[in-house]
Amino acid sequence: MKEKLAGIVGGLSANYADLRYEENRKTRISYKGKRLVEIASYETSGGHVRAYAKGGKAVASFSAPSRAGAMAEAVAASAAIAGGRRDKPLRLAGAPTVTESFPISSPRDPRNMSVQEKLDLVAHYNDMILQEPTVATTEANYDEFVSHRVFVNSEGTAIEYDIVVVNILGFIVTKRDAVMQRVRFAFGGNEDFGRLQNREEELAARIRTAVELLDAEPAKAGLFPVILDPSESGVFIHEAFGHLSEADGLQNNPAFREKLQLGANLGKPLLNVFDDPTLPGLPGTYVIDDEGVRGVRTPLITEGVLSGRLHSRETAAEFGEPLSGNMRAVDCINTPVVRMSNICIEAGSDAFDDLVASIDKGYYLVGAKGGQTSGDQFTFGAQWGFRLENGKLGPMVRDINMSGELFATLQAISMVGSEIEGSERGGCGKAGQMNRLSGKATPPIKIDQVTIGGV
Amino acid sequence: MHHLIEQAKNTVDQAELYWKRTHSLSVSYENNRLQEITENDLSSVALRVIHEGKMGSTFAVSPDQPGLTDQAKTASAYGDPATFSFAPAAEYPTVNAHDASSGRLTSDDLVALCETVLEGIRSRRDDLPLFVEAELEERELVIETTEGAAGHHRATDTVLSFGAPIKGAGMPVVKWRGATTPQSQPDELVAEFLEWYGWTEKKSTPATGKLPVIFSPDASFLYLLPLWAGLEGNAIEKETSPLIGRLGEPILSERLTIVDDPLASGELGSRPFDDEGIPCRRRALIDRGILKGFLFDQRTGSSLGKASTGNAVKRELFSDGTETKPSPWPIRLSIDPGEQALREMIAGLDEALLVYYGMGFHSGNYPQGQFAVQAVGFHIKDGAVVGRLDNTMISANIYEDFKRVRAVSVERGPALGFLTVSAPYVLVDSLQVAGA
Lengths: 455, 436
What we know:
The complex is a heterodimer.
Chain A: H1 2-10, E1 16-32, E2 35-53, E3 56-62, H2 68-84, E4 101-102, H3 115-130, E5 135-153, E6 158-176, E7 179-190, H4 200-212, E8 217-218, E9 222-228, H5 230-245, H6 247-251, H7 254-259, E10 273-275, E11 298-302, E12 305-306, H8 313-319, E13 327-328, E14 337-338, E15 342-345, H9 352-357, E16 361-374, E17 377-389, E18 392-398, E19 400-405, H10 406-411, E20 413-416, E21 421-422, E22 428-430, E23 433-435, E24 439-442, E25 445-454
Parallel strand pairs in A: 4-6, 8-18, 9-16, 15-24
Antiparallel strand pairs in A: 1-2, 1-5, 2-3, 5-6, 6-7, 9-25, 10-11, 10-15, 11-12, 13-14, 16-17, 17-18, 17-19, 19-25, 20-25, 21-24, 22-23
Chain B: H1 3-8, E1 14-30, E2 33-51, E3 54-60, H2 68-76, H3 100-103, H4 107-122, E4 131-145, E5 150-165, E6 172-179, H5 187-199, E7 203-204, E8 209-215, H6 221-231, H7 233-237, E9 258-260, E10 283-287, E11 290-291, H8 298-303, E12 312-316, E13 319-320, E14 326-328, E15 333-335, H9 342-347, E16 351-359, E17 370-381, E18 384-389, E19 393-397, H10 398-401, E20 405-415, E21 421-434
Parallel strand pairs in B: 7-18, 8-16, 15-21
Antiparallel strand pairs in B: 1-2, 1-4, 2-3, 4-5, 5-6, 8-21, 9-10, 9-15, 10-11, 12-13, 12-14, 16-17, 17-18, 17-19, 19-21, 20-21
């Protein structure tokens, strides 16, 4: 296969071309309440080709392998058309050629396990939740993605690599009278099925929280200092800041590019943020990206100052910055885009109790619950929280979200906790691609002021 | 009949083939420069079977992939009890959704269209990092069942969108339109974009309190998704919908008539049959405020002793496509226009909001008709737009607040994304607004 694909990209009239072919297996098992709504295990395959010619770029996806040659020709021609329309040619930063294989091994390899075993585990967790009398409904989903990829380019890179990721994601929905609460649980996020097993204690704790929330008070709207738990601080740094580190989004947005020059002061000296695909065990861990570039740790904010950015070969050339190996596609029908691997906030020196003790009146937000950003505005929900009063954790609160403006909020991070927690199960939407291979490792943080809204 | 269905008759009790092939071409400009030309040639298959009273499904790239029927049959051993049969043979309505001249568009044509837009805007202001995208998709959908359904639908979609990020805020102002026929020079849309972009240059925050709010067509999802969540069969089946038992009752303002209109000629999303091969039909969901009908696919319909309404769509809130299970969605919503022009609407308001997007929708309790979002749009004062909203939350319960609709515009525009919609501007009398 590699030789055949290399023959195709080698024969094109283009300055550069690459071709990725994938064979994927997806397994999904899904319970809603007592109902097993889906069980499916199936294979898909397809390819993606990119070409740069005369300073222009074109890409194509195709399902039938027999179409590879014709699509590659079409893409080379389109790239030349695109180049003819540009006053400023697109260029690629130089990258070493790689000719290796990167298989994945796993202590408990989901590829070698039966569907029955997977079904039994999800059913077991789902049953545990259904035992609780206040539970109105549940969701328990097993999601497995196995991808074998071949990538070749016209410069001689020819690699094979694997992606294997399993996770269980679910929701516990409790209800009493008009109050309904929804708490999430997620296990896994890498190639080890073992991480999905023996998680009953954590699930039981989540179920208790979902029940306790029925008696919690709704949050009051207003401006408050807050502590974000690692789940919430991870989502905040990923959504509100991390996406602005992705150079492809920034490349054509002059206003943000101006604001986000390396060296810009974005926060207090205690704030250190980096992206790292080499950290073991997190959802966004990989060796090589979908452009054949090795992933490396990239500092993003160092002592409050913008110190790096995530790149493709194209954006690295455009910005004159080093390659980072962050160009990834969720599967063969998509073109790669620049995305975070595992975004991390470096541990600070503050104990959690000190964070709490520093707040007279505020909130502690726990458990990310979706959110949205647009430009410099963000809004995120929390699954639950606690009132903070006179330096102590107060009663539990529900229906809580926070919103604000990114740059002011980064500057308002005034304490960073010392204990890091890594996320299990990634999930990040960009350019219509939902990426499971996106991780976070962050400590709790204190923000001096955000807008708290009731839901 | 496809040989997969023919052969499946020997292996399983019933089978349903869903096979989608698309060819798409798009040209995108970013910051005034041609960034990328994309061409896709894709095929995807979903096979559902019923065997020994249970459902199973599998997916593939091509119906010729070996072993599909057996895979689906294996899955059926674990599957849901089948409460319905796959679609029988039916006469499908004729829908004009394919245009041969759209199918012949080349990347040169799309490049030329994008450049017309760029020139149209830049001749009037040249300081914006404009993005423009012109897309064409040609699509062929086949649904065949062992029970006799044989649906074959071809469609072309052409979409033109353009905009620019707001200075100092990064979020964009976007204008777009779509049809089955090739897009022509969008002079009116360019003029509208320039006016709206001009409105963004000053920030303005309204006072906290109750204010009238105009929802643009693009913002219609804020009230239509909560409505969908009340109309769709799963919520009726689970008894979580606030609309249970309310057929024939007024639930929204009498100024609102909302129709599921899958058969409209030349419109994006029009189609003769749904994703289970059941014929689509034009149906009022809300007639002058009165609840007229719910949305069922085959499964939810059968569990409630009702027929499918032809509303099965392979879509969930945040995902769609061949590998998604069908569930009940409107095919193409159309809200009847009113009598007032948007300009008159704005001119008649002392203080109000014009909202074209809301952030944070899905953290709200929309299944019960509520939403609370950060409003993206404009602040109106003394009959004119005075600036873009900054740090402004709006919240509503559609079953209370949308009973008081003051006006509906003559103009209608499209919305895509969660739902395919043709909607007017809707002015709601008073909503809770929280400014900073």
